[in-house]
Design a protein that fits this description.
heterodimer, A: about 375 residues, alpha/beta, 9-stranded mixed β-sheet, 14 helices, 10 strands, about 35% helix, globular, B: about 100 residues, alpha+beta, about 40% helix, about 25% strand, binds iron/sulfur cluster
């Protein structure tokens, strides 16, 4: 997601700062079936989706609140026929507009229309560098070949391209080839993201979890490639946290810079927040965005550092990592307020490591595709 | 050679088309918007980027700023190059060469 850079990185202490970026999940519909999809396991129906007019009003509210960048995503956002109108509305409100797509529904004409509507940037996901494996992972025939064509169309339209590759045990050994492929496609930026284990991915953990060795090799390959491609392609590599000793600064803090909106209008502090069962989130059909950002109990719940239990509360890293990821804490411990078990200081850290090692060693080849 | 390495005093820097320099009303400051990045600009940064249109060279930009801020030209030139190389490393800059 969008990150702010020096000189003033936003910190969390003041809970009422304006958000920087938003994710608009325009639809859960998607022709692909990735087994690590971050959409909830209970998908929104088309008939529940926010209308064009509702989204346009939300973009206006978001810009007024201080949002600078918008990520149009899904599901597959290009499944919405009103996408050009939505892009235009985002741009008219001054938002830097990014389309996150799997690409398989695109044509050169559609890309041109998006560009003319004001699209600033396109992010294309790939599942692997090898077509057969990529299509197997997404459970979509000839998807990979189509994506290669899409990348070329995007460049021809003069749009900057980010390639996004989600990595896991079944493609991680191809990382170098994936990086070279992205460069060959003319990507300005490559985002390599390890699977985050909630939702679909948690169900499929045994088939997706990489081994510690694999991860060590991948980390080294990513570091080398960052040097090789310096100044030509920016590589953003998110180190997988299951094998780490300190948690990631998840979302740059809960309710600090970012929110996500689901296809039916719920506003979430993190796109995976619905995996925390028992929490309720407010809808833009009932409240304004301004109210939700400032007042919604769900946003207040883990904002700042006051909510933290020990060992976080008295820890010197408290303001740096903000206690890590709430969704992960919930997925592993059943308590969303617990210290992220990735942290070596968490009483549940050994449990997490054992789970990761067991999953990786299980060798389970098969996963359940999302549907 | 990368763009960052290729920038010299005689280069004519130009911001990439997909980068936008805008005023952030909610926070009252100038920013640079790029894919997945918001860079906060200080006054000098903004002045440099306003001139990165591909029409003038790095030393011309530096000379202009040196005059405006009444500062030593070599120090300013160093600052200008540093800012531009940083942006080039991130792929936000092009250089326009061989202009008369
Ligand atoms: S992760 Fe795969 S299945 Fe899920 S929305 Fe993206 S492309 Fe579709
Ligand atoms: S104890 Fe909490 S604050 Fe300290 S490093 Fe671990 S997760 Fe971060």
């Amino acid at each position: 997601m969008t990150s702010l850079e020096a000189p003033t990185k936003q910190t969390t202490s003041a809970g009422q700062r304006p958000p920087v970026a938003m994710l608009a999940e325009l639809t859960h519909r998607c022709p692909l079936q990735c087994p690590y999809c971050s959409n909830p396991t209970a998908l929104s129906r088309r008939s529940d989706e926010l209308s064009t007019g509702e989204w346009v009003d939300i973009f206006r509210q978001a810009a007024a609140l201080g949002v600078l960048q918008i990520h149009l995503s899904g599901g597959e956002p290009t499944a919405r026929t009103d996408l050009p109108e939505l892009i235009a509305a985002a741009r008219e409100n001054g938002l830097y507009t990014n389309l996150i797509t799997a690409g398989v529904l695109l044509t050169p004409e559609k890309i041109q229309t998006y560009k003319e509507s004001g699209l600033d940037h396109l992010q294309l996901s790939i599942q692997d560098n090898e077509a057969a494996n990529a299509d197997r992972i997404a459970n979509y025939k000839n998807g990979h070949t189509k994506k290669l064509a899409v990348a070329a169309w995007v460049r021809e339209a003069g749009l900057p391209l980010t390639v996004n590759a989600v990595v896991h045990r079944q493609n991680l050994d191809h990382l170098e080839a994936i990086i070279d492929l992205a460069a060959g496609l003319g990507a300005h930026r490559l985002e390599i993201a390890h699977v985050q284990y909630y939702g679909w991915a948690l169900r499929n953990r045994a088939a997706l979890m990489p081994t510690a060795d694999q991860v060590a090799r991948a980390n080294a390959a990513a570091a080398t490639a960052s040097e090789t491609y310096r100044g030509r392609m920016v590589i953003d590599y998110v180190v997988p946290d299951y094998y780490a000793r300190r948690p990631k600064r998840c979302m740059d803090g809960w309710g600090n810079q970012f929110f996500a909106i689901t296809p039916r209008g719920l506003v979430l502090p993190c796109h995976a927040a619905e995996t925390i069962t028992g929490m309720t989130f407010s809808s833009l059909r009932d409240h304004t965005l301004d109210w939700i950002w400032r007042q919604d109990p769900a946003f207040q719940r883990f904002r700042g550092t006051d909510w933290m239990p020990e060992p976080c509360q008295s820890c010197e890293f408290r303001d740096r990592d903000l206690g890590g990821c709430r969704c992960q804490a919930f997925a592993i411990t059943g308590d969303a307020a617990a210290t992220d078990p990735v942290c070596a200081l968490s009483p549940n850290h050994d449990l997490l490591v054992a789970m990761a090692e067991d999953s990786a060693a299980s060798g389970a080849p098969n996963y359940q595709h999302r549907r | 050679m990368t763009v960052a390495e290729a920038i010299t005093e005689e280069s004519r820097p130009k911001l990439a088309d997909f980068v936008r320099v805008e005023f952030d009303k909610a926070r009252e400051r100038w920013i640079l918007q790029a894919p997945e990045r918001v860079l906060v600009l200080d006054e000098t940064g903004k002045e440099i980027l306003d001139r990165a249109t591909g029409a003038v060279t790095v030393s011309e930009i530096a000379a202009r700023l040196a005059e405006e801020y009444d500062a030593p030209a070599d120090v300013i030139q160093h600052d200008v190059l540093t800012v531009l190389r940083l942006l080039a490393e991130k792929n936000f800059l092009e250089i326009v060469d061989d202009q008369p």
